[in-house]
Amino acid sequence: MSRSVFIVLLFAVSLGLASCSKGEYTEELPALMTLKINVGVSGVWPKTRADYSEAENDDEKMHNLRIMIIRPSGIVEKTAYIDLETAPVTERVCEFPDVLSGESKRIFLIANEHTQKTEENGTVESVVPYDFSRIRAGDLFPINDISDITVQLNGKTEQLPGPLPMSDMHQVDVPFFSGDGEEHEVTVQEPLTIRRCAVKFTYYVTNESDKDLQVVGLEMEKMARCAYFLPREFENEYFVPSVNGSDNYYSFSHTFLSPVQVSAHAEEINLLEQAGEKPIYLLEGKYEDKTPDTEMLNYKMALELKCDEFGSDSWKTTFEYFPDLPEYLRRNTHVVVHATIQADLEIRCEVHVHPYIGVPLDPDFGL
Questions:
Q1: What is the pTM of this model?
Q2: Per-residue pLDDT tens for 229-269?
Q3: Strand pairing partners for 38?
Q4: C-alpha distance from residue 293 to each of 170, 235, 249, 325, 360 (Å)
Q5: Which among 191, 316, 317, 341 would be 20 to 30 A from 177, CA to CA?
Q6: Closest listed residue to residue 283, CA positions, set 111, 169, 123, 165
Q7: Which DSSP category does 17 fall into?
């Protein structure tokens, strides 16, 4: 039996091919075919290519992957759940036989759906409060329920734990094939990216003072307490919507596992690395202070410091705004904070927003 292989460009299948096929086989039913896709964890901004090689740790990889293919009618055509726990990955090729040709499919991607978190009161909860295993082939896809799923951080010290939940949706146009007895296979040429539902934070400190200090912890405002699980994207424009009102923000507080020694005039000390910790993962969000002298300023940070010369008590610096940030911090980005402790022991901050990758101390890109 002969076998033909067709390559489909995401969002841009040739209209000429489609019209020709439909014109030529107007009285024939569409054939079943095999659909092959390549799912990869996005390492860059949304709507750009995937960079599969970049994952700082296993929390940033896929430990499980669920794929749901939805027909134009809203009926679930195919579902698949892939367990990757023993060998987490950033890329996975998946093949679906017996997919109906000649349709525009929506493909929903869900990863790390079973991640749990421990609340400050000790209770254990699912980070993503939904049972996706209930969605089966032949069902009407519950688009409203899926769109309204939110991820929530309830405590002042709570972070998103790993493996990080991920999600995305793609529209794929599949060409028409007639029932001519041939086997047909369509490979989606452009990788289908899946985005981590978190903003990553790392912190570097330079000490310009002549004091030997310890950094005990940090505090950040104004962090979003709640975010939608699925990315919100309309007409190719991505944005971070307010969830439960624009005032649903809090001050995130973190105490390092062990105080970080920052000697006088030390430069670019990686606080989390020195404390033996992973990056901090929080939710995407947006915030603006509504005072005339702080236009477009939003997130700000204070450090908790200690100096043996001053006794055993620690103190917090004055909060310092993060300059030059975009209007909002969106998921799947990496915020690198460079804090400088000045001679008066107050701080100033420089911030770069990067793709979701490890970065050098002197990056040549950023915001």
A1: 0.84
A2: 998 876 566 667 665 554 568 889 999 999 999 999 999 99
A3: 93
A4: 42, 34, 21, 16, 33
A5: 191
A6: 165
A7: H
